[in-house]
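Task card 7
Instruction: Convert sequence to structure tokens.
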Amino acid sequence: MTIDLTRRTLLQLAGASSLAMAAAAAARAEGVPQGGGPTYASRTPMRVGMVTLRVRNLGKVADYYRDVIGLTVMARSASAAKLGTAGITLLALEARPDAEIEPRNAAGLYHTAFLMPTRKDLARWLVHAASHRVPLSGFADHLVSESVYLDDPEGNGIEVYADRDPSQWQWSEGSVKMATDELDIPDLLSLTNTRVSDYARAPDGLRVGHMHLRVGDLAQAQNFYHGAVGLDPTRSRNGAAFLSSGRYHHHLGMNVWQSQGAGQRDDAATGLAWFSLVTEKRDILAAQEERLREGGAQMAQLPDGVEAVDPWGTRVRLLKV
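Output:
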């Protein structure tokens, strides 16, 4: 397939007339005030495992993650689907045909961030997205990474990104420097053939690099995800906080930009059902369980860990792998 992949084409897909507008859209997606090594995220003591979404139209949403992101459908029935790469489940979908769409001012999912193994993979994927005229909501250079933003058919946010090598990340007093600058599209696309799409499926090394949540109160969120779960703060700014394990730039983002004061989530609505944080270290899991118990968190025992519920009803599974 021959593709007319010009800067203009990409800007049209992002609904923007300039790179500055596209960066501004990405800034809104990351909440920036206007004006890593590819496997690093998975080598940390804790990392994101998988995500489960409740969806109204299972077929349509499953097809989207298969066709747009390139995930392999590993299992599918009338009520559920599992998708992933290299035999590893990254996304599970639960059919809820009668569910209400979760409002954007509720606590819940802001976006799921799929981390490409290499910058070239991100370039290949961008050619694929453009060739299929996939609507984009923004793209930006975050200094530590390069990102493209979009939404699935039911409004669940998605980020597709590639990390810069961690040696290029700038840390100061425990905080990592990030920004939302214009993405250098020509430089990115110079890594691949823009006239032919060769992205048939997601690369085997694709993982969920980080999760970004809407929460009702940042202090409460920090108390739960830092104080109890044990992720370390990496930076904060107006209305948002970012945490990670092992000095990754962030495994978890949290914001109150639309959801300040949000109450309990509706389990009958669409959106994030649960996500997992996994570790190979039994002592980390034991310490998490103890802190959650001491803090009075709602918990349920699982065969390989625990499921805890954050202050707004979002479920996080802490698992030993």
